[in-house]
């Protein structure tokens, strides 16, 4: 059904990059897609996730970060830790992403990302608000296949979620090689924006400037 | 009214129309995908401005930090929720409107 959809006329299929660029992350049996679909590999259960996260790097950092978040949200209320401590431990241990503890974005990159995020958020909200206000309800939907340039599973998921908040894009499918994006505006301009965001996410999470 | 209070109030007032626009999109747009567009984008900015305004009005760093965290957590929930609904809809063969 879905493949019919994507092959149907009127749906733009784009391949802005040569095939073969998007490698499946190493060490992930069946590709990371298998994890989200529950296929392939025996390391996808809750017990396995907890064991992996408990053994992984950065557990202490995650525990401290989540405890800080709880402390701020609860306004320092001591009685709240009865709920807070189990929540903090569960969040740190049930994290589905590989714990590699490599995430140290340069402040300059972080600032640039924050600037783009705020500006594009505003643009996206005004754009969709304008479409909702117009009597003619101008929407020109299309599905785009966007091949991954990003290497790691977590940065791909981050990008897929990020674009849901950015102007005119919604991620509707994630595979090993590409994500399918539902767009409501100009498809070509959207692709340029996606490439820019992917570049930024690459710098932010994978730590190396991308071409 | 001090300048900070005026700016805070302005941010809250500027944020509220975004919730209206999102709701309008939810009611007017034709399918699940386009409605997700409307909600995810406008809630992000609407809540951001309201939280920013309230943080300025509160005059407290602790409350400001808490409101910022609430916004960030809502962003994560909103982006993840929109993605889950969108991916499930397509996986179940729901055809996007206009295609």
What order do the helices and strands come in, and which of them pair?
The complex is a heterodimer of chains A (211) and B (99).
Chain A: H1 2-7, H2 31-37, H3 46-55, H4 59-73, H5 81-93, H6 107-133, E1 142-147, H7 153-162, E2 169-174, E3 178-183, H8 187-206
Antiparallel strand pairs in A: 1-3, 2-3
Helix pairs in contact in A: 4-5, 6-8
Chain B: H1 3-28, H2 32-58, H3 61-91
Summarize this, please?
Chain A is mainly alpha-helical and 211 residues long. Helices cover 51% and strands 9% of the residues of chain A. In chain A, helix 4 runs antiparallel to helix 5 and helix 6 runs antiparallel to helix 8.
What's the mean pLDDT score of chain B?
95
Instruction: Find the count of extended strands of chain A (DSSP E, 2+ residues).
Output: 3
Share of helical residues of chain B: over 70%
For the largest beta-sheet of chain B, the strand count, sense and barrel status come to: none
Beta-strand proportion of chain A: 5-15%
Q: Gap between N and C termini of chain A, in Å? A: 36 Å
Class from secondary-structure proportions of chain A: mainly alpha
Mean pLDDT across residues of chain A? 78
Number of domains of chain B: 1
Largest interface: A-B, 44 and 44 residues
How many helical stretches of chain A?
A: 8
Structural class of chain B: mainly alpha
General form of chain B: elongated
Elements of chain B, N to C (H/E): HHH
Beta content of chain B? under 5%
Overview of the molecule:
- The complex is a heterodimer of chains A (211) and B (99).
- Chain A is mainly alpha-helical.
- Chain A has a domain at 2-27 and 104-206.
- Chain A has eight helices and three strands; from the N terminus they run ααααααβαββα.
- Chain A has a three-stranded antiparallel beta sheet with strand order 1-3-2, with helices on one face.
- In chain A, strand 2 (169-174) and strand 3 form a beta hairpin.
- Chain A starts with a helix and ends in a 5-residue tail after the last helix.
- The model of chain A is unreliable at 1-42 (pLDDT under 50).
- Chain B is elongated, with a radius of gyration of 17 Å.
- With 99 residues, chain B is mainly α.
- Chain B has helices spanning 3-28, 32-58, 61-91.
- Chain B has one domain.
- Chain A binds chain B through residues 1-2, 5, 8, 10-11, 69, 72-73, 75-76, 118, 121-122, 124-125, 127-129, 131-133, 137, 139-143, 160-162, 164-168, 170-174, 180, 182, 184, and chain B through 17-18, 21-22, 24-25, 28-30, 33-34, 36-38, 40-42, 44-46, 48, 62, 65-66, 69-70, 75-76, 78-80, 82-83, 86-87, 89-91, 93, 95-99.
